[in-house]
């Protein structure tokens, strides 16, 4: 039950604790570890791509392997690195920022992380089991139906499993933020991180079902003999493109909005000023979220939608620049005249403004449909989306890692090493991707595994590769920094940055497993700052000290996810050698065990769902006495 | 320790709850009856062909719309307080879904085989 006795734990009990945990702080760490692992994996794939492209006519990777590497780089970075790492920071901060003891559905939170982990493992097993997916991260249907072997099946099933986890987590965060805010925490007093998490969660709720449907159709085409995308049988491959981008465009906002949230917190903290134009920021966040759904066809200008459709989507796309511009100017106005402290997170935040704006400007260039015919499928596009995703999201992840590290691990990352990481990453990033704009304008196509000598691409590609190595050095320094910090384990106290503004900094570190001994009363925007300036620097409680209810740990989420993981293998090998199957797999050896495996896997999942439904799990109460003991101990430690 | 803390209700509270539930039940039954009635009319109009098809189609669509409203507001409790967010989500969902359908019909040529 309550973890009072657990001072010294064995390795086994720690692992069991993390397998069964429903605590948002531990789930944040799970997301961080798994997301960080996939981030490194995707980074290694990126290095392979850049080594292959460093010199003309290179044969470091074969053409087929190159396709697999670019597909897995894109898929891993978007689905298995960027999003889970953002979930790590959301989990670590949002319940603390709104004054809640956990998420609305702690069990589902655990299910979400395990579905993501098992989906990610399944996708990456493709490297060892006959070849990775090779149709690009967009997996356009005609190409992915034709792709021989099981690569695309790993893509479809892996993303289906991890996508279900993401959808569950999105619902969870939206519900938590809507229903579980502390007294006084009105919508217009929520920190920007919470606001952007709310909007991103709503986008997940609306955007992931189209992806789920699209992948289901692809799964049925590839594994169960349907014809949704098979043109010879009356299918239509354009439907996949639409479904994918109806999901895919909101997806980039799902990534960038929490990044905006992290930066908004960092700007306000280290400029020691209230965020400029808070209500305009909220309005812009919601507007970006709404517009995000109305622009998906700008990825498909060259498909042949016709001039009317292209014009509508071009104008809608350009409209997004307005709320984004509002945000950029508000951040500049926030640091304007502030007393700026150049910490590592702040460096990332300051570098983010020009970097992201450059990516935004090239986005507007591509929004002009006639011009897009020139940019389409060239390195210009590659440069653009790396500028917004690396310059926006990855900068935010690295900034957030340094900024929120004390909340998650009660220690501080080394600032000097952090700044070394920053400078290597910043210089390497611009060196890698700025030159790629010009490569694109000179005509170098994307997704092609090599280029000929004498086309004028040599020097630029070499510069780009050197830049990629600088980023790799940055990540290695970061890993060293993390290892040193964890080994030293120098504990820090409450509010380690000294300028915390929001509720999460008002809690003692390490954060008690119940977060708040008493739910605080929020008296304004930047609740903790209000108390620092107008009160005694402590949050006022909104309730008397009483017993409160907490959820029990459970192993069921792992079992449910494992069931789907097993079922995925059954589904994948089901069509092998069948006469009704598509050409890609009909020549393979039949696997009679596939159907039983599918049934057993789904059985495990449904039985564990049944256990969850019919066996009551009412949780437990944290007693007043225990909380009082903790508070006393804290008092003694503080003196 | 594993059971939920519950305090017994006072008599007045119980009375109030009972009244609320009776009213709720009546509303549910009325809207249920209305919906059955509308369905009957829709079936009847289509089966007996008393009026021409170009009138029947909009009429049936109109009945369907009324039924959707009744379903959402009375059966799924959207009329109750504290459902503003649910309402906002449903409206947004409708808007997106309709926008997607319109574009699919007009630019993905799904409509083409129908014509």
UniProtKB/TrEMBL annotation, chain A:
Positions of the Cytochrome oxidase subunit I profile domain: 10-523
Keyword set includes Thylakoid: no
Membrane topology classification: Multi-pass membrane protein
Pfam family name, one: COX1
Statement: the UniProt record of this protein carries the keyword rRNA-binding: no
UniProt xrefs under PROSITE patterns: COX1, COX1_CUB
Places the protein is found: Membrane
Protein family according to the UniProt entry: Belongs to the heme-copper respiratory oxidase family.
Name the UniProt record assigns to this protein: Cytochrome c oxidase subunit 1
UniProtKB/TrEMBL annotation, chain B:
Compartment(s): Cell membrane
Record carries keyword Membrane: yes
Protein's recorded name: Cytochrome c oxidase subunit 4
Keywords: Cell membrane, Membrane, Transmembrane, Transmembrane helix
Keyword Transferase carried by entry: no
Transmembrane segments: 29-51, 57-76, 88-112
Origin superkingdom: Bacteria
Recorded topology in the membrane: Multi-pass membrane protein
